[in-house]
Amino acid sequence: MRDAPESRPGADRDVASDPGTAPGPDRRPRRVAVDPAGPVLVEGPVETVLDDGTPVRSDRFAVAVCTCRRSRTYPWCDTSHRPRERQGQGPARRPAAPTPGSRTQAPEAPAPEPTTEAPAVTATGRGPAVAATGRGPALAQARGELSESVREALRTGSPPVYDPRSLLTADPWGEDLQLALYLLYELHYRGFDGVDDAREWDPDLLRLRQGLETRFLHALRAGVPAGRRSVEEVFAPLLVEPVDQSDSVSRHLETDGRLEQLREYAALRSLYHLKEADPHAWVIPRLTGRAKAGMVAIEYDEFGAGRAADIHARLFADLMEDLGLDPAYGRYLDHAPAPLLATVNLMSLFGLHRALRGALVGHFGYVEVTSSPGSRRLARAMRRCGAGPAAERFYAEHVEADAVHEQVVRREVIGGLLAAEPELEDDVVFGCAATILLEDRLADHLRESWARGVSALRLPLSGES
After folding, report:
1. Does this model's pTM top 0.90?
2. Largest CB tally within 10 Å, which of 56, 101, 258, 305?
3. How far is 266 from 263, CA to CA, in rounded Å?
4. Per-residue pLDDT tens over the stretch 371-409
5. Cα–Cα distance measured from residue 1 to residue 439, given in angstroms and rounded to the nearest whole number
6. What is Dmax (Cα atoms) for the chain?
7. DSSP string, 12-41
8. Coil, strand or helix: which one is 42?
9. CA–CA separation, 253 vs 391, rounded Å?
10. In sequence order, which residues have a C-beta less than 8 Å from that of residue 195 and are 6 or more positions away?
11. Distance CA 432, CA 434 (A)
């Protein structure tokens, strides 16, 4: 099962509610967090009364209540407070101080001096050769014929050599295909140490990638539930916490997880979190109007709201240091099994194809809707195991941020996209359903490994402090 909230269909009730359905007395204190330049964050469920006396309820885990009255989804925050100044307060500002003990960002290196040298040409004559920067990770070890073919092609600068029939027989969920696809996708991010940057658009590598993607995409479509469903139907079960959380990875880590399991979990998730939000940025030029504005608003937060030290990828690197892990980008690629690689490959697949823009929005919607409850549990897990303040801060940051983002992504990004392109609803549903499928597979792998008392990684973390 997925490590995400489940619910009863129709349980998201952030609409005008029946006055006769007011909740019974609940004497447990509710936690309220006040952002002086933003919303009031309240543990849900929450019922507010509008100016006309209409009660409005949200059953969400954490509810961001608008205080500026500019929100188009009032009384819920949609980040509309940001573009303007609060009357008499000047520009809105983010809280200035990081959590005590958290890392600070080192000064950025100056940009390199421009060069007037003519570009070199590759030995294959395929275009300008861009010298390897050394900033990318090392190439991972191969796990089969296809990944060996990609690795050798990148290492030597030659075309990939493989039997085309292997594309038809390769396990779409297997280590070989998933690593081969990951290596090819990584050329569009930071590349690899010693690999010519021009290989990003090498036609032979792109042809191989197309074959791998076709196999992967077919397995995804075959794996999601059959039958046509609406966006409302696929997202409704994600909006309220389930009563039974026995199959939740974050719940296990919160209550019973060991520090070593938290380290494994962080090492695996680092393959995405160290480039957090990068795959989703590809969809921005493919959106218009409300969908584009909403997507940019969320991405602005993911990239630190203008503060380099608050970029979420930077916060995750700090988390890794607290856990005694190496925060270098791509450091744990050899450690990651296929179920983890598939979750990262999915967002790269959706992000790199304009035809799959609806699926990318569906994937992004799933991430934002389900993030807040899981992040709260993981923050508690870090605190219980004494992981450190930066480790706790990363997840605590996502509790608040994603409570706001959930409203924006559903109403503006998904709602805006379908208002402009209603024919993409099936793609949005597919993107969400495919993400659930892969998160379920990863959760199964983690829980089964830990239940047997073995590592969930392909290689041990021993030797790191």
Report:
1. no
2. 56
3. 5
4. 888 999 999 999 999 999 999 999 998 887 767 788 899
5. 8
6. 76
7. --BEEPPGGGPPPP--SPPPEEE-TTSPEE
8. strand
9. 14
10. 132, 136, 139, 154, 155, 187
11. 6
